[in-house]
Amino acid sequence: MSLLHQQSDELDDAARGEDYTKGSTHLAWAAAVATVLVTIGIAIYVLTGQKPPVVTGEVVQVWAEPLHTQTSGLDANGAEMAVNQVEQVLVFAQVKLHNQSKEPLTLHQIMANAKIGDGIISSYAAIPADYDRIFEAYKLTSPHGPALSSQATIDPGQTSEGEVLSAFHMSKQDWDKRKGLDFTFVFNYQPPLKLAPQSAVIDQPEQ
After folding, report:
1. Sheet of 85-99, strand order
2. C-alpha span between 37 and 31 (Å, rounded)
3. How many domains does the chain contain in total?
4. Is 50 helix (H, G, I), strand (E, B) or coil?
5. Phi-psi sector, 56: left (phi>0), alpha (psi -120 to 50), beta
6. pLDDT tens digits, residue range 131-140?
7. Spatial separation of the C-alpha atoms in residues 161 and 134, rounded to whole Å
8. What are the tens digits of pLDDT across the range 58-78?
9. pLDDT-based confidence at residue 37 (cuts at 50, 70, 90)
10. Which residues are registered as beta bridge partners of 87?
11. Which range is most confident: 82-91, 113-122, 142-151?
12. How far apart are the first and last CA of the chain?
């Protein structure tokens, strides 16, 4: 084989290697573009397929009022008995709930949830009759607005607003150590709605 022929063969091999490299680069770009297009397609599908929640809401303000009570030391017949002391923190929340669906929504339960240490302590909201009675019995200083019933029905497109009351059986010192607070609203045949306060809890003087 002549030197000229050998050099020609080497040049052909180099040219073929360059073509292979160019082909691999084109394939990599094509794969990258395809991946981006698939990702965009999935995102569009997810976003367009998601439905808005049937109900939205807001915890406008929360008040916490510590309450210390003790028994009289007498039973119903006037006989002496041990005096019991009870420490509670009453939590009042002004809330708004908006029905975004085309059907009426009925509340089933309302709960306040306080994170204490590594656990969660929940308290069911009082019914409206107890809400008013507690205000009258203990001369509370928290704002006393209309109560939101835990069995309220919200018509389509309407907003229901009111206050809820929950009681935590703990001292003010334990309450002050809480790591979080939120509220759960349970509706019939719908996922529960969990809301956190929009502003800091207002601490009222201890009763």
Report:
1. 159-168, 85-99, 55-70, 202-203
2. 10
3. 2
4. coil
5. beta
6. 889 888 888 8
7. 20
8. 999 999 999 987 666 666 676
9. low
10. 68
11. 113-122
12. 110
Stronger pLDDT, 111 or 84, i.e. the higher one: 111
Q: Is 128 in the same domain as 148?
A: yes
Of 26, 50, 74, the one marking the end of a domain is 50
CA 152 to CA 159: how far, in whole Å?
Answer: 11
Do 76 and 39 reside in the same domain of the chain? no
Residue type, 93: A
Residue 188 or residue 15, greater confidence: 188
Same domain, yes or no, for 38 and 61? no
Based on the number of CB atoms within 10 Å of its own CB, is 124 exposed (0-12), middle (13-18) or buried (19 or more)? middle
Residues 36 and 76 in one domain: no
What share of the chain in percent tops pLDDT 90? 50
Tokens 């919200």 appear where?
154
Amino acid at 51: K
Q: What is the CATH number of the domain that holds 178?
A: 2.60.40
SS3 4: helix
Domain that holds residue 80: 55-203
The two three-digit tokens of residue 71, written as one number:
């028994």
Among 50, 65, 86, the domain boundary falls at: 50
